[in-house]
Amino acid sequence: MLHTVGIAGITGNVGAPTTKSLIQAAGEGKINLIIFHRASTDLTGLSTATNKRSENVEFRVLEFADPPAKIAEVVRGVNIFISAVGFPALPSEPNLVDGLALSPDLVTYIPSVYSTTWTERDFGDPRLGAVLAFLHGGWERAREKGVGVTAVYTGVFELFWFQLGFVGAPIKENIIWANEKQMQNRVPITAIEHLAQALTRIACADPQSIKNKEYSVVPFWPTGNELKELYTKINGQQAQVKEFTPADREAQMADAADFGPAKAGYWEKWESGVWGYEAEGRISDREYGGPGLEEIARSFA
Fold first, then answer.
1. 241 Cβ contact partners less than 8 Å away, ≥ 6 residues apart
2. Quick one: average pLDDT of 114-119?
3. At what angle do helices 260-272 and 126-135 cross, to 10 degrees?
4. Please, is 298 exposed, middle or buried when counting C-beta atoms within 10 Å of its C-beta (0-12, 13-18, 19+)?
């Protein structure tokens, strides 16, 4: 008997490719899939994609702000719930979890916290901890309610690294923002497509086997120096290195509105070389067969 996977946040950077991958898995008879969406969501593309795979795919309207009892009814039958919502929806995720906790069918919940690992010290920092509490609201509520959690850790998404400059290195500017230690140390970069595939593999497993497990999805580990060489090669001129200073860190920590403390947290881990992806018990998904880092970087140049 097939188990049932539900996903919400189906139009975002993570949700769109993950939903597509899950639809394929449902079409192959690996899972039943319920695609949750808001009443206002345009489903044209997804409806077309599921025309020939409708037997195992269902669409349901879900509003995170609804009363928990109503949410529980909407998610009835779901064994694994994947949240892929973006930042604007995160404040409503604890309420979603209140609803999930009332469903007798739910086994585990994958929260929309696809990021690096964080320590107790990180959570205890007044500024970084406040940002992390915002990001982990649903996760923490799940722990309070006794809902199973399946955590999936990632590196910096390729979009955030090469285009948006989340850690200060958009490839078009041909600048690496790093200090001497960071130039020598590795930094984790995750292709979103790899995450989508990994989430599908995880979701296709027996729900009880993934309950309260932790996974990491990091296919690329370049050093700062290797990134400098890559930028130089792609841009056809020597990449520049901009020193990341204590003053830069303080400026980031003060910029809570733009998640600056989280950015500073990544820089600190890069400088220390300590990330935590391979802690005891964490399962590393290495089944990535997509483009290499150079091909990915070129797509943003």
1. 175, 176, 177, 178, 183, 224, 228
2. 96
3. 110
4. middle
Structure-token pair, residue 267: 């820089």
Residue 252 vs residues 58, 129, 249: alpha-carbon distances, Å: 43, 14, 5
Q: What is the mean pLDDT of residues 94-121?
A: 97
Tell me: the pLDDT tens digits for 13-56?
A: 999 999 999 999 999 999 999 999 988 887 776 755 555 456 89
Name residues whose C-beta falls within 8 Å of residue 155's C-beta, 6 or more positions apart in sequence. 116, 187, 188, 189, 190, 218, 220
**What backbone phi and psi angles, to 5 degrees, belong to 7?**
-135, 140
Cα 236 to chain centroid, rounded: 32
Is pTM beyond 0.70? Reply is yes
User: 4-298 sits in which CATH class?
Assistant: alpha beta
Residue with the larger pLDDT of the pair 220 and 281: 220
